[in-house]
């Protein structure tokens, strides 16, 4: 059993157990026997016709799971939604990745997929914002845009013959700086309308990548309007992140307030706690945890302690049951 | 030496057809994509799976299937003598290969082309049957990593001492020098994927011993399935919707 | 089922290694009482109406096993911890208690307390192993009492005072063995009791009985820790003590650390060690080392001396004579061999011994407890002191006695009476003694064994014939040649000449010259494995017995009589199943091809050696059987010649033959066994078959074949032979078996018997051939020295030797006729089978010899004889003579015992002569002397054969 690896006192253990049991009772009513493991056969009504989807295979006319997960049925389609696996890209997903290599006309990014993803030079807007053909000079200057180990936000463009391609044709995509990258299992992230969030109160940005990479960073002005795709708006200050040219003054300007940095850490720890508890990660819940920590006047580092963990679990159980009642 | 006394008890108090206590735990290595600890009595093995991920050595990349790699090692503290275990000696190379081939046979590698899956197994404590324990741990870790598989592979050993087939030999029985048959099966498909023995045994007795080991495998499979199902359920309900 | 409880166990080996062992505690171990309501009583062993259940502790089992074997003691619970301890301390007692537990007639139940959830006890800090085990026994006893409730009484039997006290404190009924047996009111059982050694419970009682013996006679044994450290530092040497069969005051310890044998002289140096004990020896200072010359025939103790024995025929039987390092002038330092004294006994080899009580006057009050001295038949064993209440019954009986202890104050070990065999001097009793002494099982076969026999009367059925691998050879003219009166005929022969042979790819036809003919020689061996299947009780029994034993007047069969004498025996005029070896041979006896097959035959004639010889010699007889005999004989002669050319030794032994009165079974005549050409002919084909089969099975099963090897004798072993040869001016070349064979051939002395005598002496230097498992040794060691063949096995006598049964199975498996039984996979088991076969084989030989000795004695009892003898060994006060006519060997004293060592005679080592000081008289080795043989009875019931010089 995947346990929570924390030192818990006896009462904490009991409380956690109780909270988890409550969670279990809440969910068990929803889909009770949908969980399967490898080689379990999935009961289907063959007369209706079955389309076997992901995580299933055929064995002597039986539909058999090849993954551990939850059986989902959409009309005729039967598939197993896997938990705890690597990210499965879908076109249009917003992902966060890390540059592993700068190659010919492209960057290779680690996005927690079984292969690296490609971001073509041609698939991203030039820093100057001008739409034009990429020249050989642009190719040579690729490192001025992204370097190895840079964290980048992009969108899944689709599969080509040579692998997965990303695009970043918007000002909201691009390099991320002054913040923290967190990795959580992708199944904890739900695809939603909005993945870019600005917590104005605290001046931080939160980008929840569909691939389980979550960015918590200082708010960047250029992205104030995140809902619309504003291609034409430019902000050279942010979009020319040329390290070589960063002067002392600019460094001064890039200086992040201690308060903001603390908020970043707090938000990051909120994500960590949720991830370690295996709770779904949405803006609402992160905010909830964030505020819980603030209201209970907890130090940032104490957020990873056992007490807070139990507290979060209890709060979550409370939240879900109240949600349920509302419905 | 008497390995089964006339009362039908083995040196550790088991009966010939009994397995040691087994215990499994999923998620022992948080960094890995999937991991598990598997214990058979005092034999304790940890397995970690990384991948599917980008192939490290691009010349090994296969465009139609995933590359499976396996590394077996024994911790220096795993045995009583605490000797320094050289890495990559013949025995561990052989066991690595055995585990790799066994796991490769059940992973649906064609679903993950151009990627690589790394399985690391380490023996934390050795008391006979490490090979089987490694395979069981690797199965759990692969399942935990969400890697699609045809079926679970489970393995168990059986031996033949004092003219009695014995299930799941421990170290004392293993070092008796008798035949030790390690069997790996796909329980759902009812197929044998691994059969190893390094001594001679008449065919009819081998059949008995193998049958016993297969029974053991099935019992392990049931246990592993239970553990996995419980784990999946927990993940699901914790995640919520 | 599985009650899981895990705990670590630490054990320390030579290096300190922490070991972790699992130990599962169970709840499905049953108490074994049929009336128990809780437990599954289907396999219950205790009796239905048991009112008292005995729980015995380890020392009770170890010491009172004879009592436990008595059927009067029943309803005993043997705890697994007790078995474990007994096994570690004394394996033979362990086997005996196991046998009792397995015996369905006895109400003994094994309770695995160590694996039971409620009776397992954890080690406590600061508790010794013994205390812990005692506690475990008490816990188990308590559990029994609680488990069975008040209906029965659970009685803990222990002689340990402390244990008893603690038991009573814990509310367990506990008694000592003595008080329990007394409460049974069975005085005959009391004799079976082992007296507690003087340190134990009733010390005062012993003190009372033997006040005069309270002085220390032997030095103390060193504690085990000191011995271990001494062994490490090389002060002490470890080895097995072997007492000289001919002189119980002299013993040898073969020590690996010295690489030589250490001699131990005298009882005090032997310090209470028995033959076969593993001992620790300390070397004496060199000036106390005795020279070999001073060894005399008899010991220092006046009342034991040399008996007349059958001449030994191999080095294993004969006492190991001492190799002399230098035979030249510089005598002193070199000729001394290390002497030592025993400081501790690492492992005892005590068991029970056959013998009789030393004659003594009847004590005044009969029926009371009397002390008596027991004299073992085996001269290597010291006298044993026993207590008995039935002295008058035992005085003239052969009895069995067990050794219990030997403390420092007593001159002799103390033991207890086990059972009576019969009257001294009675032939049946003495035969029984011979069997017991050699550990030969002469009990009738059990019903389980007999159930394995085929239905009788048995005959070949069509089913047997229809099996594809069984060839029908009933039309062939088969005959057997065996000793007269032989009933277990396990081999038969057939031979026919071929007119055409397929030779070198050409079809070679010849009917012109008889010398161009080839011959088929067939050898049929009884197909015992067709009736004895592996894993059956019959097979187990045969495997245990190992061999049939031939005594002068009876035969103890390995297989039950119907098999031995009828179903397997290849008797004449009946159809029998056989395993055949078929050779195609050239007239020069070169083997062209060898084939093995199972077959059905019908023997035409069962000849004796004498008959066969007579037929061959009678030139008038031209019937087919006789011609076949002659043909085979000519082939055999050629084979024999070739074998001798290869270097096979023709060794000789002094086998004797008795003519037994059919009614009284007393020996009527005694004479050397005569070897005829017919014997040699049969022998030759047997050897050839054995060699062929050995090659065949080794080819198929290189790791698990059972072969027979004869190790090359070392130079030291041949030393006595060389010394004798040198003394008579003979030059023997012992560099190889071929060289030895040749020089033996050339050793022709002035009289016709000289050559044979030398051969007999040579045979005596060799060790015996042994069975072994081919996986245990490397191929060069497979060699059979005496037969000069690289491979040899036993195939030809499956009725009377178990080794042949094994080889039959191997051969059948190698031909694909049957599957190889699983035992062959288990190398250790195979090795232990081979060891057992060697042990049984040797014992059977010893028993045979002992039987001959016994009958010799009976024969000479009424017939004092004068005869010719040859001197074979020189000693300081006499010499050993060998009597060719009767095949016996014994000492002849030149001095009477009183004047021993008076120096009238001295030994010339180099010339192997004993001379009178004044030079008037001398005897040299191999010299012929006239002796008088007579049976004398120096003590009542102790007849012995005495040889005196005329």
UniProtKB/TrEMBL annotation, chain A:
InterPro entries: Exosome_RNA_bind1/RRP40/RRP4, KH_dom_type_1, KH_dom_type_1_sf, NA-bd_OB-fold, S1_RRP4. GO terms for molecular function: RNA binding. Pfam families: KH_6, S1_RRP4. GO terms for biological process: CUT catabolic process; exonucleolytic trimming to generate mature 3'-end of 5.8S rRNA from tricistronic rRNA transcript (SSU-rRNA, 5.8S rRNA, LSU-rRNA); nuclear polyadenylation-dependent rRNA catabolic process; poly(A)-dependent snoRNA 3'-end processing; TRAMP-dependent tRNA surveillance pathway; U4 snRNA 3'-end processing. The keyword Nucleus applies. One of its GO terms (cellular component) is cytoplasmic exosome (RNase complex). Its main location: nucleus. Keywords: Exosome, Nucleus, RNA-binding, rRNA processing. The keyword Nucleus applies. It is found in: Nucleus. Gene3D superfamilies: 2.40.50.100, Nucleic acid-binding proteins. Residues 179-220 form the K Homology domain. Residues 86-157 form the RRP4 S1 domain. Belongs to the RRP4 family. PANTHER family: EXOSOME COMPLEX COMPONENT RRP4, PNAS-3 RELATED. This is Exosome complex component RRP4 homolog. It comes from Cicer arietinum. The gene is LOC101506177.
Automatic annotation (TrEMBL), chain B:
InterPro entries: ExoRNase_PH_dom1, ExoRNase_PH_dom2, ExoRNase_PH_dom2_sf, PNPase/RNase_PH_dom_sf, Ribosomal_Su5_D2-typ_SF, RNase_PH. Its main location: cytoplasm. Gene3D superfamilies: GHMP Kinase, N-terminal domain (3.30.230.70). GO terms for cellular component: cytoplasmic exosome (RNase complex); nuclear exosome (RNase complex); nucleolus. GO terms for biological process: nuclear mRNA surveillance; poly(A)-dependent snoRNA 3'-end processing; rRNA catabolic process; U4 snRNA 3'-end processing. Keywords: Cytoplasm, Exosome. GO terms for molecular function: RNA binding. The keyword Lipoprotein does not apply. SUPFAM superfamilies: Ribonuclease PH domain 2-like, Ribosomal protein S5 domain 2-like. It is found in: Cytoplasm; Nucleus, Nucleolus. Residues 18-148, 151-216 form the Exoribonuclease phosphorolytic domain. Belongs to the RNase PH family. This is Exosome complex component RRP41 homolog isoform X1.
TrEMBL record, chain C:
Pfam families: OB_Dis3 (PF17849), PIN_4 (PF13638), RNB (PF00773), Rrp44_CSD1 (PF17216), Rrp44_S1 (PF17215). This is Exosome complex exonuclease RRP44 homolog A. Keywords: Exonuclease, Exosome, Hydrolase, Magnesium, Nuclease, Nucleus, RNA-binding, rRNA processing. It comes from Cicer arietinum (Chickpea). Its cofactor is Mg(2+). GO terms for biological process: nuclear mRNA surveillance of mRNA 3'-end processing; rRNA catabolic process; rRNA processing. InterPro entries: Dis3_CSD2 (IPR041505), NA-bd_OB-fold (IPR012340), PIN-like_dom_sf (IPR029060), PIN_dom (IPR002716), RNase_II/R (IPR001900), RNase_II/R_CS (IPR022966), RNR_Ribonuclease (IPR050180), Rrp44_CSD1 (IPR033771). The gene is LOC101496147. CDD domains: PIN_Rrp44-like (cd09862). It is found in: Nucleus. SUPFAM superfamilies: Nucleic acid-binding proteins, PIN domain-like. GO terms for molecular function: 3'-5'-RNA exonuclease activity; endonuclease activity; RNA binding. Its main location: nucleus. GO terms for cellular component: cytoplasmic exosome (RNase complex); nuclear exosome (RNase complex). Residues 52-165 form the PIN domain. Residues 470-817 form the RNB domain. The keyword Nuclease applies. Belongs to the RNR ribonuclease family. The keyword Cytoplasm does not apply.
